[in-house]
């Protein structure tokens, strides 16, 4: 396994096995407190949406690595391997471009967010932390896409990603 | 500008058709378009803004958790037991299980507020079962993709709230008005299934030899866990314990508890369910962000205003208007999601509808149903794509094809609704 | 010709768009004699309202609704406008008080977000709509009330209710099913969100108003000729008052509508008003303490705010509208 795959799997572990269960607990506790004890947590909704954001972005690199993204298969099943290879490279190239833009933008966002003192409403968490997380994820995606472009796997099905 | 919008529309379809992932195609064309109508800097700002604002929407919590709930239900095997009972009792009917699936979706619609969540949750549970009973995959996947529509016609419904707030129409009235059309569409779907199976018996699954009555009655016990889950969710919703969004999370709790007592949930099953929920949510999220970016770009090209403007200039009568709007939504449904379509068109179409004397509640039900068709038509049909994730081996073309009879059914219903508006309105008045 | 991107949160079908923003856009065009060409984007199609400041600061839009409510941590003095009873009863007078305070105290805070003021506006007073009768504060005790933003949350808490946060889109169903027992909102917005369909008891207590100023992209504004900047000022001055007039009309019709729909309307008695004021008054001291205490700018701000409120409360709307516009808004 390449180092980048390890990083991607590590982030995914946080998404699926830490963030999602955390939302489960947060909302479960909030609903119980609200209905049974009439004492809801004012910040539970905010905490769960921020956790949702983290869950979603942390799973991004792994979603590309495992290629779970839905695509039309009308033509790909009929294409020659050479064309399929070219398509796979096009996809990684687009992902690389988009990811690099995200990283650059996160960098300039963070500056503005600190200047504006942007914080979450109920918990007062500095929002640039999460923009930073998006930047890190973007960087991982960019490295992954660059890696795949430079060292494409000589596999039978270049369109599909690494196996589970 | 209008040429730019048209060009982007065509480029997007091209990218999707050659096999670039849908979400990535939307993001790429969206960014490119935004950079042209604005600047690269505003386009880049839009990317991170939409990642954050879409990713922190509370209602989107329903996506991972309904997926998780569907996966867990599948692993507990409670769906299998329920379908065994259904197969015993419905084996006399051609396509009986497919018909049961339609009504199961309608039932789940009473709990969920979203069409895509309904399709994915029920798809994860039902499609493996239909496969087990030998149903043809085009039929199975088509039924499940299309039946998501029932999820938003049976209240609660996020999209009706959205329409209600946008046009200041009574949300309560919309909720009431959706029920009968929802049930009629379910009946139309059932009829469609019977017809399909008559024409192509292979689609209908193999005949199940019904056992003795005692065994058949005993099999009914298998329905109890699912019934229990539904009771908790419906009860919790209507007694004011939780909102529909929170209901997705509570549903997961209930299934976990059920699995614990039945000892039917292994650690591996839970892990696999979480893995799938995280990956699928991210995948759908990329499509949502891409759709947002594309819509923000498209609105600045004036393309949709131009199309609707041209429609206005034709000075249409009632039936012509309905026909034109249906056609418009079929075209827009190629690349826009339901929210995108409504926000871009309703402010323009609504006043025309009012001028034609159309009832605002009726118009809401109508546009929601036509907009929903876009979820099952190529190339961008979100419901079809989520169903594909639970039927990986079925080519997309087959699923879209499987949806076609149901699209025809919905279009038929729209005709019915246009001629007899009372279908939607009589409960309201 | 200069293209102006005008984005707005409410849809094209809303009263705010038709009675305030569309006329504002038309005025920008006519006052500039066609120099401004306004591209109109109602309905949050370019960005959500919560991103108003960033959208205006980065050039996604040129003019939009940019409310400190959604970016609370970026502001301090601005929240003072939302103190209970801080603003006069009249919506017109409220705009005037906001303008004067803005020129003296709030401008720097707002402009730090890389925007300029388009115009000031404010919601009408917040009241409570509940699913059970509220005749006094005792009835409010222990009720779960959906509240948006820190001011409304604190008010509910201090009055003995239990604040619940949730998206406004979830609120209707939640209210209908009893997840929450009530909602705190301006009466006009209760009707716009159709909350009267599910809550039949309206308790009018005039708690506080929420400031909803509108912003201009600073770089865009600075790039305009002095003549065009004057056009922006004149169009904005009217838009602020248009907003007030629209809300006055909506509040009026909201009460009528709710009466028609069988909502019982209870106005807090003098005695209850006094109790409410007593419970909410610590928010004033809290505001001053949080922002530097006695002798600070916040203390002076609060004093001026009280004086301005009393001054304009004593004037009729016609008298206020006849005054020359406040200087130093931009
Ligand atoms: Na529903
Ligand atoms: Na479609």
Show the helix and strand layout.
The complex is a heterotrimer of chains A (164), B (429) and C (330).
Chain A: H1 3-36, H2 44-58, H3 60-65, H4 81-116, H5 128-150
Helix pairs in contact in A: 1-2, 1-5, 2-5, 4-5
Chain B: H1 2-18, H2 22-37, H3 40-55, H4 62-76, H5 78-90, H6 96-109, H7 115-132, H8 137-153, H9 158-167, H10 171-199, H11 213-219, H12 224-238, H13 244-262, H14 267-301, H15 303-313, H16 318-332, H17 338-355, H18 360-373, H19 382-390, H20 396-419, H21 422-425
Helix pairs in contact in B: 1-2, 2-3, 2-14, 3-14, 4-7, 4-13, 4-14, 6-7, 6-8, 6-10, 7-8, 7-19, 8-10, 8-18, 8-19, 8-20, 9-17, 9-18, 10-18, 10-20, 12-13, 15-17, 16-18, 17-18, 18-20, 19-20
Chain C: E1 2-7, H1 15-31, E2 36-41, H2 52-58, E3 63-65, H3 91-111, E4 115-119, E5 126-130, H4 137-140, E6 144-146, H5 150-158, E7 162-164, H6 168-177, E8 182-186, H7 187-192, E9 201-204, E10 214-217, H8 218-222, H9 226-260, E11 264-267, H10 270-280, H11 282-290, H12 297-313, H13 317-322
Parallel strand pairs in C: 1-2, 6-7, 6-8, 9-11
Antiparallel strand pairs in C: 3-10, 4-10, 5-8, 5-9
Domain TRAP C4-dicarboxylate transport system permease DctM subunit (chain B): 9-423
Function (chain B): Part of the tripartite ATP-independent periplasmic (TRAP) transport system.
Main location (chain B): membrane
Please describe what this structure looks like.
The complex is a heterotrimer of chains A (about 160), B (about 425) and C (about 325). Chain A starts with a helix and ends in a 14-residue tail after the last helix. Chain A has helices spanning about 5-35, 45-60, 60-65, 80-115, 130-150. Chain A has one domain (about 5-150). Chain A is mainly α and about 160 residues long. Chain B has about 425 residues and is mostly helical. Chain B has one domain (about 1-425). Chain C has about 325 residues and is α/β, with parallel strands linked by helices. Helices cover about 50% and strands about 15% of the residues of chain C. Chain C has helices at about 15-30, 50-60, 90-110, 135-140, 150-160, 170-175, 185-190, 220, 225-260, 270-280, 280-290, 295-315, 315-320, and strands at about 1-5, 35-40, 65, 115-120, 125-130, 145, 160-165, 180-185, 200-205, 215, 265. In chain C, β6, α5 (about 150-160) and β7 (about 160-165) form a beta-alpha-beta unit. In chain C, α1 (about 15-30) runs antiparallel to α9, α3 (about 90-110) packs across α9 (about 225-260) and α3 packs antiparallel against α12. Chain C is globular and about 60 Å long. The mean pLDDT of chain C is about 95. At the A-B interface, α1, α2, α3, α4 and α5 of A face α1, α2, α3, α4 and α13 of B. One sodium ion (NA) binds near residues 109, 151 and 154 of chain B. One sodium ion (NA) binds next to α8 of chain B. Chain A: The complex comprises the extracytoplasmic solute receptor protein and the two transmembrane proteins. Chain A: This is TRAP transporter small permease protein. Chain A: It comes from Pontivivens nitratireducens. Chain A: It is found in: Cell inner membrane. Chain A: One of its GO terms (biological process) is C4-dicarboxylate transport.
